């Protein structure tokens, strides 16, 4: 299994925001911009805009319009479940599609059930982790992100 680039970008954006959010008071929280994210990760603005919009709809980030606008985390990193983020950005599609096109093995096949169970094990494992889990090296990440753009 491989995560979609869309999900990968969403996780990168959240990590970027969390790295600058760490240990900052509300007044000093850094607003990120689409340009910063694009420059830091070498991503297209079109892709980043879509992901940022989706993260905003999920109420994971807060966007602010205007001359000094940008976006920042809307929740504390410890309140953002990796399972939730990945499930939402990936879409909760089946990993095995047996009906379209119809697979002749379907009446006797165990693959669909085994893979579906594996998917649930995967998400249950991720339930133990939050965005904060990815921030153990926040100062180093912040340094990397600052020099990358």
Automatic annotation (TrEMBL):
Family annotation (Gene3D superfamilies): Winged helix-like DNA-binding domain superfamily/Winged helix DNA-binding domain
Classification via SUPFAM superfamilies: Winged helix' DNA-binding domain
Keyword Signal annotated: no
An example Gene Ontology molecular-function term: DNA-binding transcription factor activity
GO cellular component annotations of the record: cytosol
Keywords (A to Z) from UniProt: DNA-binding
Pfam family, one: Rrf2
Domain of life: Bacteria
UniProt cross-references to NCBIfam families, sorted A to Z: rrf2_super
Stated name of the protein: Rrf2 family transcriptional regulator
Organism name: Pseudidiomarina gelatinasegens
């Amino acid at each position: 299994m491989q995560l979609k680039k869309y999900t990968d970008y969403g996780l990168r954006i959240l990590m970027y925001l969390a790295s600058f959010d760490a240990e900052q008071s509300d007044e000093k929280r850094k607003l990120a911009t689409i340009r910063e994210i694009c420059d830091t990760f070498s991503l297209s603005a079109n892709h980043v805009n879509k992901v940022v919009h989706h993260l905003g709809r999920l109420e994971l980030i807060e966007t602010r319009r205007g001359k000094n606008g940008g976006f920042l985390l809307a929740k504390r990193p410890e309140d953002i479940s990796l399972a939730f983020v990945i499930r939402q950005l990936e879409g909760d599609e089946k990993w095995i599609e047996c009906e379209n096109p119809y697979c002749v093995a379907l009446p006797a096949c165990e693959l669909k059930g085994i893979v579906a169970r594996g998917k649930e094990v995967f998400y249950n494992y991720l339930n133990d982790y939050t965005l904060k889990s990815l921030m153990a090296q926040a100062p180093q990440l912040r340094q990397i992100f600052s020099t990358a753009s």
